[in-house]
Amino acid sequence: MATQEQPRPLNPVQSLAVRQPVIAGVLFIAIATGILLIITRQQLLFPFWSSIAFPMLAVSPFIVFALKIPTRIKLLLVLVVILLIIPYLGLKDSFYLELAVQIGIFAAMAMGLNIVVGFAGLLDLGYIAFFAVGAYLWGIFASKEGDTYINQIHAVTTPESFYLFLFGGIALAAIAGILLGLPVLRLKGDYLAIVTLGFGEMIRVLVSNLSNISSDPTITINITNGAQGLSGIASPPLPQFVFDAVGGIANLLGIKIGNIEGITYQFFFYFLVLFIGLIAALIAARLDNSPIGRAWTAIREDEIAARAMGVPLVRMKLLAFATGASFAGAMGVIYAAKQTFVSPESFSFNQSIFILVIVIVGGMGSIRGVVLGAVAVTLLNLQILPNLSLLLNSFKNSNEVSASVQNFFKSIPSQLEPAKYQRFVFGILLVLMMIYRPAGILPASRRKLEIDEQMGKAKDEALPRSDVEPEGPFITEDPNNAA
Amino acid sequence: MLLEAKGIVKKFGGLTAVQGVDYVQEPRSIDAIIGPNGAGKTTFFNILTGIYKPTSGTLTFNGKSLVGLSPDQINAAGISRTFQNIRLFNDMTVLENIMVGMHSRLRVNLIDTIFRLPRFGSQEVEVRRKAGQILDFISLTDKANEISRNLPYGDQRRLEIGRALASDPKLILLDEPTAGMNPQESVEAMGLFRRVRDELGITVLLIEHDMRVVMGISERITVLDYGQKIAEGDPLTVRQNPRVVEAYLGRGSAGSAGDK
Amino acid sequence: MSAWQRAANWTLLYVLRPLGQIALFIVLSALIMSALALTIGFVLRTPWHGISALKTYPNIDLLRQVITQLPNMLVDGITIGFVYAMIALGYTLVYGVLKFVNFAHSEVFMVGGVVGYEVMQFFSSAKQLQTMSPVLLILAMLLTSMVICGLLAVAIERLAYKPLRNAPRLVPLISAIGVSFFLQDFVRAIEALARNQFNLSYPTSDVPLLSNVRFPLINTQILWNGEMVPVATSINMNSVIVIISAILMLIGLNYFVNGTKLGKGIRAVSQDQGTASLMGINVNLMISLTFLVGGALGGAAGVLFGLKTGKITPYIGFIPGLKAFTAAVLGGIGNVTGALLGGILLGLLEAFFSSLLPYFPALGSGYSDIFAFAILILILIFRPAGLLGKKVDEKV
Lengths: 483, 260, 396
Prior knowledge:
The complex is a heterotrimer of chains A (483), B (260) and C (396).
Chain A (H helix, E strand, L loop, with lengths): L11 H8 L1 H18 L7 H21 L4 H22 L1 H26 L8 H15 L5 H5 L9 H23 L4 H21 L20 E2 L8 H14 L6 H29 L2 H11 L1 H6 L4 H27 L1 E2 L6 H14 L4 H31 L5 H8 L11 H15 L17 H5 L25
Antiparallel strand pairs in A: 1-2
Helix pairs in contact in A: 1-2, 2-3, 2-4, 3-4, 3-16, 4-5, 5-11, 5-14, 5-15, 5-16, 6-8, 6-9, 6-14, 8-14, 10-11, 11-14, 12-14, 15-16, 15-18, 16-17
Chain B lengths: L2 E10 L2 E11 L4 E5 L6 H8 L7 E6 L2 E2 L5 H7 L1 E3 L12 H8 L8 H6 L2 H20 L15 H13 L5 E5 L7 H18 L2 E5 L3 H7 L2 E6 L2 E6 L1 H6 L1 H8 L11
Parallel strand pairs in B: 3-8, 3-9, 6-7, 7-8
Antiparallel strand pairs in B: 1-2, 1-4, 4-5, 9-10
Helix pairs in contact in B: 3-6
Chain C lengths: L2 H41 L18 H37 L6 H21 L8 H28 L8 H26 L4 E2 L6 H5 L1 E11 L2 E10 H23 L1 H11 L1 H6 L4 H27 L1 E2 L5 H14 L4 H21 L13 H13 L14
Antiparallel strand pairs in C: 1-4, 2-3
Helix pairs in contact in C: 1-2, 1-7, 1-12, 2-7, 2-10, 2-11, 2-12, 3-4, 3-5, 3-10, 3-11, 4-10, 7-8, 7-10, 8-10, 11-12, 11-13
C-alpha cells in the first residue's frame, strides 16, 4: 500500500485519466468502437476481439461517469454511445442490438430483484416466476398455438393491445408477488429463500403442465402448450414509415440489410427496453429515497427495531415483493413479444440465480451497481462464453493456424465448450464475491442528506409538545390499515 | 392515567416470566421499574410494546386497549421505546435513523413516492426540519450524516432516544438507558430524560440498574422480582422496603439497597 | 454391573431402541398414508365432488386402483423415504450447529452418486462385476463415496463458509448456492473429460444379484365389488440394500451423536457455541466433524439413490435435495429423529402422488414434484418448527 508521503506512481493510462479525463473518455469509446468497426465475422479472431471491444463499449458509460469531467460532457458521451454508436453497430450486425436488448431486460429485472433483496433484505430465489407470469400472460393471449380453447371462444387479443398488456403484466406480477408474500412473510432469512425457490419451481412446473386442463379425455384444453412452449407470439404492430425509415437510414449509410422487418423490430425493442429500463431505474431510485425506502432499509437492518419504530412489517414487505415483481412482469411481456416464443426452460431456477448474480456482482442495494452487474453478467453469459466456444471451434477447423495448434484444439473434447459452463463461472463468482466483496463492484452508499437551511433555524425552535396535536403533513395513518 | 396494565401474565412454555403484574402510570411522570436480573422487566416492556403477546391481562393506554395490537400500531398509538442492547439501524446515517423513527407519523404512499407529488416534497421538507430539531435536542446535529455504527457508545444511546422521540410519543420506554456509562455520562443522561419530560411533555418509564439514576430521577418506582410486583412507591419508601432489600441483597442481609 | 449387563444395556440403548423407533415410524407413517390414500380413493371415486379437474378417466375406479397399488406404493415410498432421510440428516446436522441451510448439500449427494458410479465402473472395466461378492461391491461403493463426500463437505465448509461465519445470515447462503452451481458444472467437466458424457447409468444389470432377485412380499386377492382384485407386491434387491444400509447408518449416526464424546461435543456446540468453546470444546473441529458426518451420509445416500434409480447426472441433486430439505423441515429442522420421520413421510407422499396423478386427465404425473414444495410451504406457514420440533420465541 502506498502511504500518503509517497503516492504510488501513476501508470500512463491512469495519468491520462487524471490529467485529461475528457480525452481519456473519448479515447476509450473510440478504441472500442474502432475495433468493432474493423473486425468482420469472417476473421478467425473475430470472437476474441468482439468480446473485448463490445464489453468495453457497454461499460464505457460507467467509465465516463467515474472520470472527473463536467456533467454535461458526461451525458453527451453516454448519449452518443447509446443513441448513435450502438444503433449504428446494430445496423451492421444485429447481434449487438440483441445483446443490448438482453442487457436492458436483465438490468430492469435485476432492479426489481434489487428492491426485494437489496433494499428490503428478503432473499428471493424464485424471482424468475414473475418474469414467467408476464411472459405467459402475453404469450397465452397473443399466440395461436396455445390458445386452442381460448380461440374457440374468440377471446384472443390483437397485437395492438400489447401496451395494455404491459400494464396487465405489471399488475398480474404484483398480485403474484403479494400472493407469494402473504404466506411467507413470517419466515426469516434462509427459510424465506427456500420457500421462494419452491414457489418459483411451482410456477415452472405449472406452465410445463398446463397443456391440458380438461377432465374429458375427448377434449384438450391447452393453455401453455407444456414443455414445447408457445410460439408465434405477436409483436406490437409498427407503422409502415418506421420500416421505411430504418431502410432509408441503412441505405444512406450504405449498409445492406436483408431482413428490414427483423432489424426494425430489434430497434423498436432496443428503444422500448431503454425507455422502460430508465423508468424502472427512476422508480427504484425514488422508492429508495423516500419513507418507503428508509422503512425497507430499517427492516433489512433490524426487523424488531423497525417494528418498534412504527414500520408496519407486513405492508412494507408486501410492497417490496409487489413492486419488485412488477418490474419482472413488465419485462416478461416485452420478452415474450420480442422472442415471439416462450417455453418453461426460460424460467428455471438457473435464471433466478442468474439475476441474483447480477444483483450481487453489481452491488446489493445500488442501482448503478445493478446496471453494471447486468452489463457484465449478461455479456459474460451471452457473448463472452459463447464466443470462447466459437473461438475454440474455429481454431479446430481453420486453415489459418498450423496443424499442431489445430490438433491441440481438436484434443479438447467438445463437451468442454465454455458456453456450457455458465454455472461453473457463476458459482465461483458468487462464492468469491461473498468472501471478498459482499457489497459488490459498485456498493450502495448511504446518501449524505442535506438538512437544508431549515436545519439552522431549527435550533431556535422547540420541538412540538406531545400534548399538542401534531399538525400539517404529520397526519397519522389509520393504524387499522396495518395488518 | 396514561397507562394502565392489569393482571399481566406472560408464560414461555413452563416458565412464567411475568405473573399478574398491575401497573399504572400518570401522564408527565418519570417512573422506573427495577428488579434483579431475570425479574421480568424487559419482558414487561416487550409486552407493553407488542413484541410479546401477554398470556392474559389487559393494557389500556390513553383510554384505548392495546391488547392484540402489533408493535407498529402501538408505536402509532404513542408508545415508543429504546432497547437494552442498542438496536440502531447500524448502516444508516444518524439522520436516517431519526427519519425512520417518524414512520408512523408519515403519509406513506406508493403513488406519491413514484410521481413525487407536491405533498411528498412538502412532507420530506417537514421530515428534515423535524429531524433537525430532534438532532439538536439530543446534541447530534454535527454528526447527522455519520453512519450510526461509527458513533461512540454514548452518542448511540442518545440517538436511540432521539429515534424514539421522532414518532411524537406520549410515553417513552427506556430500557437500561445508562447501562455502560460512567457516572459523569449518567448524570448527563438524567438531564436528557428530564428535558424529555419537562420540555416535550413526554411521559418517561425506565428500566434501570444504576440506583443513583433510579433514586435521582424517578417519581415512582415499581420493583419486580421473579415476575411479580413486590413493591411500589416513591424512592424513599421503596429503598426502605425490606422485601426490596431482600430481593437485591439476599435473605438476611441488611443495609441500603441504594449502593449497588 | 457385569460386562454382560453393560453389553445388554448398550444394545438396548443404541441398537434396539433406534430400531424400534424406525419400525414405529415406518408403521405409523404407512398407516397414516394408507388411510389418506384410501380416503382420497374413496372421495374422488365418484364425480359427486363436482370439481372437474379432479375427475378420473372414465371407467377408472380410483378406490380399486388404490387398493391394488397400495402395497407397491408403500414399498416404493419407504425405500425412497430412507434416501431422503439420509440426505435430510445432512441438512439437519449442519442447521443444528450453524443455523444455516447448506444449499450445497444436494451437490454433495450428487457427487456421492457419481463416485458410486465410478467405483462400479472400475470393477466393471476390471471384469469383476459378475464374479465379485455383491456385498463387497456395495461396501466399496458406499465407503469410497462416504469418504470422498465427507471430505468434500469439510473442504466446502473451510473454503466457502468459514470465512463468512460472522457475516449476515444471507451471505453464507448465497455462497452455498455458488458452491452448488460450481460443483454441478465441475463434476460435469470431469465426467465429460473422462467419459465424454455426463449422463451416467449404473451398470446394475451386470450384477445378477442386483438385477434379477426379487422377494415377493404380498401376493393375494381380495373380493371387491364382486370381482377378485389382485393385491401383490415384491421388493427387489436394490431396495433391500437401500433399506438395510440406511438403517445401519442411522443406527451408527444415533450412536455417534448420543453415545460418543465427539457427538456430545457436537451437541454442545449446537446449543451454544460460545459456552461450548469456554468449556474447552474445539468449535471449529466440531463444525468440521458435523460436515464430515453430514457429507458422508449424503454421499451414501447418493450411492443408494443411484442403485435405486439407476441414473445419475451432475444436475440430479437439486430436486432430491429440495425434497430432503422439505423432509428435514417437516420433521423439525435441527432434529435428527425428525429428519428420519420427515424423510419417510415425504417418500410415501411422493409414491402416492406419482402413482395416483396419472389417473386424472386434467393433471397428469407432471405435477408430482409440486407436492413437495406445497408441503414445504404449508409446514413453514402453519408449523415452522416441524412435527417434532419445539416452538422458540425470538429473544429480544
